[in-house]
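The following block was generated as part of the benchmark described in Methods. Ligand: S-adenosylmethionine.
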Amino acid sequence: MLTVDLRSDPTRFADSEALYLEVRRAEGRVLSPEALRKLPVVAADDPHDREWQTRAGTAARLIGYLRGRQPHPHILDLGCGPGWMTARLVRELDATAVGIDCNRSELERGAEAFGAVEGLELIYGDIFEPVVEENSFDAVIVASVLQYFSDPQTLLNRLLDLVKPGGEILLADTPLYRCEEIPDAAERTLNYYTKLGFPQMADHYHHHALDDLSAFSPEIIYDPRAVLSRIGRSVFRRPFSPFPILRISRPENP
Ligand SMILES: C[S@@+](CC[C@H](N)C(=O)[O-])C[C@H]1O[C@@H](n2cnc3c(N)ncnc32)[C@H](O)[C@@H]1O
């Protein structure tokens, strides 16, 4: 049986956890264990059907990329939520993976859904606390997560300490703006959460620019604006993620 390993104080994030869950419920994003096991495939009448199709594309791209890197990688999935992608990475790559999140109830639902997945570990913890071993992961996945951190540089430096020399961080499914676009994006976010009834959620959602990451020399491994991506979109007539996948690597010999 898979249990959630508590490595941070479980009361620390209680307020933000409760708010996040209320928001997810209001958005229709809290899924049963059966539905979680089917992700990224959702029912045709799921309100987020199109978004899940783009997430399926991201998962497939990450898996294809990591498959070409090395056999049986050891992966950290930061902000794994209920761990659908973490479980998928383990299965498809014959990998071992740690999903970490500071939302206990998301992790508990994940443990219920993915208890049969060998090689999967779920940790409740704050990534900035010593909850996982440094220099120990081949890759850290940051999927739909960067927007929940106010300071991406501090986060990326922390994650670089967690990957092995020669390892990498993969950022996906996060909007990255041009600096001048950020005020409008922040206003749209506030309007969205206000309409949903939770304006305070906007304080937990941050808008970052690609330029904010330039000190880490990110390499774009999927560019939604590239000609091939655009051709793929029109040939397959499926929604593709509008967000890039970026790779930030830790040098073998610093
Ligand atoms: C939108 S969810 C992403 C879920 C998942 N990665 C996916 O692809 O569906 C963002 C997650 O980041 C988690 N998170 C935010 N700050 C964190 C922190 N300091 N340490 C660990 N997890 C964090 C949140 O609790 C939330 O579950």
